[in-house]
Write a structure and sequence with these properties.
By secondary structure, the chain is of the alpha/beta class.
Length: 245
């Protein structure tokens, strides 16, 4: 989920800065880099796009990882994560050690992620749905309607407070990344679930209060504004895929 310049959305700049990001999906890291070299780059329509030559993403990725500091966390220190997810993603640690990485069990302090994301996400959905008629909105699934409804209730102070909280998260993470080059953790908190289930309602027996809680480990990283990649890591005993970010 890397940040890029050429954004094919009609979001105002402020909205782009908050949550939506665009990135390639590919079979290998090299292919993802090649795709990113085409998709990224400066664009006059986006005043915060990087001026750097995006060709850098197509450069060879070989490097020496000896002594590279990596922070590993199964749950960011506070989230519910299924044990099978933790066990499978932890299997990547010996691989990282074998190429010379130094791994610590550590995580940045990321307070109030849920409330921050809910506010900024609600703002985006309220904006996106504002031009729809009542009949059109009825065709959208209930969870998205809920998001938009949350956004429509927001005051200017609510948004300012969410931005302040996000800035605090970003400061904490940036300070943490002065020690570590990479933060490694699961992509999801639950194993893949049946298609008939819209979203998980509990993790490890703990009830979720909204449809957003089961994926907090994902949008917590999105809030940092740092580039992230999701890679295949292994499989559960039932043969279901598990990802590492």
């Amino acid at each position: 989920r890397p940040s890029m310049g050429r954004v094919p959305f009609n979001y105002p700049v402020g909205f782009f800065l908050r949550l939506p990001t665009v990135g390639p999906m590919a079979r290998t890291a090299e292919e993802a880099g090649y795709l990113l070299s085409v998709m990224a780059g400066p664009d006059y329509r986006d005043p915060v796009s990087h001026l750097d030559d995006p060709a850098v993403f197509a450069n060879p990725l070989d490097r020496d990882f000896k002594g590279t500091r990596i922070a590993w966390t199964p749950n960011l220190g506070y989230l519910e994560v299924q044990k099978e997810i933790v066990d499978v993603t932890a299997m990547a640690l010996p691989v990282l050690k074998n190429i010379g990485c130094i791994i610590d069990n550590a995580h940045p302090d990321m307070p109030e992620v849920f409330d921050t994301n809910r506010t900024l996400r609600g703002l985006i959905f309220a904006f996106q749905l504002a031009s729809l008629t009542a009949d059109q909105r009825k065709q959208i699934k209930q969870s998205v309607q809920w998001d938009a409804a949350q956004g429509e209730k927001l005051t200017g102070m609510d948004v300012a407070l969410a931005e302040y909280k996000r800035a605090n998260i970003v400061r904490n993470v940036n300070k943490f990344m002065q020690t570590y080059e990479f933060l490694v953790l699961p992509v999801t908190q639950v194993t893949p679930f049946k298609i008939e289930l819209e979203y998980p309602t509990e993790i490890n027996g703990k009830k979720m209060n909204s449809y957003l809680e089961w994926m907090e480990i994902l949008y917590a990283i999105t809030l940092t504004g740092l580039p992230a990649i999701s890679v295949p890591c292994g499989f559960t005993e039932d043969g279901l895929p598990v990802g590492l970010q």
